[in-house]
Structures are given as structure tokens and as C-alpha cells.
Amino acid sequence: MRNVWLIIKREYLERVRTRAFLIFTVLMPLFIGGVIVLPTKLMTMKSGSTRDIAIVAPTPQIAADIKSQLENPEQDNKTGGDDSIAPKYKVSVREGSDDASRAKLATEVSKGNIDAYVWLTDAEVKNGKFAYVTKHPSDFSDFSTVQSAVNRSLMRSRISARGIPPNEIESVLKRIDMDVSGVDQTGKEGKPVGIAAFFLPFVLMFMIYMTVLIYGMVVMRSVLQEKTSRVMEVMLSSVSATQMMAGKLLGVGAVGITQILIWLGSTFLIRMQFGAQLLKNINLPTQLFIYLPIFFLLGYLLYSTMYAAVGAMVNSEEEAQQLQWPVMMPLILCSVFASAVIRDPNSPLAIWSSFFPFTAPIMMFVRIAVQTPPVWQIALSIALQVLTIWGMVWVCARIYRIGILMYGKRPTLPEIMKWIKYA
Predict the structure, then answer these.
(1) Distance between CA 360 and CA 46 in Å, rounded?
(2) What is the pLDDT of residue 79?
(3) How many domains does the chain have?
(4) Are residues 262 and 331 in the same domain?
(5) N or C: where does the chain have the smaller number of CB atoms within 10 Å of the terminal CB?
(6) 340-366 burial by CB neighbour count: b if 16+ within 10 A, else e?
(7) What is the mean pLDDT of the chain?
(8) pLDDT tens digits, residue range 53-82?
(9) What is the DSSP code string of 335-370?
(10) Range of 350's domain?
(11) 222 is a domain residue
(12) In the predicted model, what is the mean pLDDT of residues 371-377?
């Protein structure tokens, strides 16, 4: 046990003192903050640009209504778009609905005299489409604002044509917003959530995915480096192969746990100090702070044992990159299925992927982040992972014991089976 502890201490101290550890520890919280907080901040920033738009409409009333909504959105019960990021508008009403008039407007756009024009004639209204020609074809907020203004104006015109008094039109068209919230297992309603209800589990999934992958590859490269430099042969004179493997896995795993705890601590402090301002629409259940290190540790132990076996089998970095793909495939499948599991955490795909040991460390945690499943499902998932880890440690330790002393060509599958059988 003393030898294992010495290897753990060496692996841990060697990595926590590196610049890469410090940089990655700082960058991950910044990345998470950028993904969660920055879009919210950008969505609340007012745009300082002004768009010159020309409007051609079937009637002067519709044209004036569109102009009023674009130039004064706050006075018109909003146009349906997000006016917090929409640009300001300067609108001019044009006459003429023939091809020559449209060509003239297109020329003005190309020369920069105007930024865009709305082509809404009787033919467009009849066909259910109108043209919006702009110098900014990638500005989605601009599209939403203009389309909502045009549709609202047409609805007003149609409602007015059916004899409804003008003072009642606004009450008919008044927009009502929706608050989305979930319920827990006791039936208690949670806080309203926004788009963060999708992105937060995805970011947390990405965190476990990246840390498990990175630290698994660290173990593989460490084993490969010691094998190719023949340091392994010297170390085996003092410790057994099993002790070396255990010390390496636990030492590198301790580095990952340290990093996870630092991230959770910084997130908790941000939540306590600035939660009201930055995280008001982001629900961070306390149980996430408990389950994150648990599922990271389970995922790390499962995959790092396989990565250690890969590092022991190969003789070069190129061979390791080729052989690690079968190990990575379940992790890649987790990223593919993540969005479907987030949308429906109780679907058959979500349930079975959270029980399958090679995807459970990520999929079960994603389900917990979205909507906590029954306790028996969490317990069963953890139990299956522990049994699988025990089996993989037994298999990979036998491969590791022989592979670290084998040089030359990469072993074939029958040779690996012999190692497992006779080690």
C-alpha cells in the first residue's frame, strides 16, 4: 500500500504543478460562464445601428402602421421580435408597385442609399409572402422584427375590415408570454426556466465528457511514455504492475477530482454572490454539486483503465491514436444522444443509455441535471457502473501486466485474449 501511495503522490503533484493544469482549471469556468452568461448579456445589449428601410405596401394605412411599429416598438406592444437586440429603424414609405420601382429600390440598396426595402404589394399579400431585400442577410433579429411588424399590420387591416372597432383591435392582438417550469417527484412546481434549461445540462455533459476524455488520455500517454523510455522496467523492480496501474489511475483521478471541486466551488461562489443578476433563469440544484464528482469519478475509472491497457499494448503515439477509437466511441455516442435525452429525459433512449455502463456516467448525470429520475434508477445505474469498473479493472490489469513489457509490433486480438487468460 505504501508503494501505491507513493505513486499516487508522484502522479498528483507532478500534474497539479503544471501550467496546463492551472490554465485548464481557469479556462473551464470562463468557458461555462461564457456559454451561459455571455449570450444573456448580449441579448440584453441595445444595438446602436440604425437601418434605413423603404416600404412599399398595398395601402397607406398598412405602410404607416409598419413604419410606426418599426420606429416605435415600445409604443406598439412590441412587434413580436426581441427589440432589445433589434436595430433602430428609419422608415420611408414609397409609392409604385411596378417592376421599375422595385429595380430602383434594389439599386438604392446596392449603392448604400438605403439598407433594405419591404416589397408588400397586393400580389404578395394574396400569395402569402412578401420580399425583404437587405444588405444584412445574416441578421436574424432584423428578419424577426420586420416580419412581425408586417404580419401585425396585415392582421390589423383584416380585423378592421371585418368591422371590429379600432380600440378593440389591440386587445385582440395583445401578446401573452409563457413561463416554462417543471415539477419534482413530489409534484412541487419549480422556478420558471428559459433557454438555459437546455444549455445548462449540455454544458455540464460537455464538462464530464472533456474531463473523462482528457484524463483518460493522460493516463494512456503516461503509460506509453514510461514504456517506451524503459522507465517501466526500472520501476517494476520495486513495485508490481498492479500497484503501478492502481497508483497511476488514482493519482491522475485525484487531479481530475481536484479540478472538478475547484470548478464547483467557483460556481457555488458565483451563485451565492451574483446569482440574482447572472443566474436568475438558471436552476442549479444542490444535488448537481454532489453527483458531478461522483459520475466523473465513475466515468474516469471506467475509461482510464481501458486507456491504461491501450497505452500498455502499443509502442508509439500513432498506434495509440488508432487503437483509442473503440474506447472513445461510447463517449462520442453520448454527445450525439445528449440533445434527445435533454428534450425527453424519460424516453426509452434516455433510460437505457443511463443504464448502459459505458454511457451511464454521462447520460445519467444529464438526466439528473434536467429532471431527477427515481432514486432506484440512479442507484441501479451506479451499481452497474461499479460492477463494470470492477470487471474492466480485472481484465485491463491482466493486459497491462504483460503489455508494459512487450515491445515490437502491436498485439493482435488473439494474443490479447491469451494475455487475459494466462496473466
Answers:
(1) 43
(2) 44
(3) 2
(4) yes
(5) N
(6) ebbeebeeeebbebbbbbbbbbbbbbb
(7) 78
(8) 899 888 888 888 888 888 886 554 444 444
(9) HHHHHHHHH-TTSHHHHHHHHSTTTHHHHHHHHHHH
(10) 2-40+193-422
(11) yes
(12) 87
